Structures are given as C-alpha cells and as structure tokens.
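Async update (no meeting this week)

Hi team, since we skipped the sync, here's where things stand on the single-chain job. The sequence we agreed to prioritize is pasted below, unchanged from the tracker. I ran it this morning and attached the output directly underneath so nobody has to dig for it. Comments welcome in thread, and please keep replies under the output.
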Amino acid sequence: MMKNEINNEIKKDNEQSKNNEVICEDAADNGEAAHGTIDEAANESKNGASQEACDEASCEASVNEEIEKLKSQLNEKTKQCEEYFNMLQRTAAEFDNYKKRAIKEKEAIYTDALSDVVASFLPVADNMERALQASAGDADFKSLKEGVELVHRQFKEIMQNLALRR
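Output:
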C-alpha cells in the first residue's frame, strides 16, 4: 500500500518535471521561431541572448528545485518505510515470543495434570501392596478378596473423580 502511494507521488512529480521541461523547451522553440534562423539568432543583440540565457537558467533552476524537492520527499518516504519495517520486525518478534511462551505454558499445564493423575493413583498402588502383604501369611483367600475389592472400589472412585469412564 505504501509503495503505491510513493510510486504515485514520484510519478506525479516526474510529470510535473516533464511539464516544466516541455514549457522550457516550448519557450526556447518559440524564441527560435521568433528570431528566425540560427544565423539571425547569432546576429541578435546581447540583450536577446542574455534573455534566452536567463530563460534557460530559470528553467534549469526550477528543474534543480524540483529535483531537490523530490530528493527530500524520497528521504522522508525512505525514513517512513524504515519505521514501518522496524515496527513489522518488532511485531514479528513479539508474536514469536508469544508462541514460545504459549508452548511452554501448555507443556507446564500438561506436566501438572500428569503429575496430579499419577499422584491420584499412588494410594491405589499402596493398598494393592498392603493387600498382597496381608494375604501372604494367611491361607484364607477371603481377606485377599476383600482387599482387592477395596482397591478396585478406590480405583473406580479415582477414575470418576478424573472424569474417566470405562
């Protein structure tokens, strides 16, 4: 969008410069036509020659002014483009940092959730060990069955608390 505006301004300024040159050339052509041939122009008085020199000098001065004006506009637009480019780079860097931060936060949330789930199942593992130890010295499998049923019930409760279904 900015390039189009800059290009349009440069085209406009170039057209104005061309118009000034055409006007100067027309004035020079009119001067030659009014004075006749080249031989007649050489025979003119010093005033006529100095007037043409002034016209050419004024045309050259206006062209030089236009060039300086265009250079200053170009410098302004270049500075403006640099500012926009710097803003773009900063915004891109900020977005990149945001993405990295979001990934780290997501990983942290996942790690916390995983540790919570594992911590929830630790009592189940402890109770399984107790049930196995209690049944090791007893030949009666009734106590083993009761212990395993308790662990199973605890396991189901944890699954429900975590909103997991079978």
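Quick observations from my side:
The longest helix spans residues 46-136.
The CA atoms of residues 50 and 158 lie 106 Å apart.
Reply here if anything looks off.
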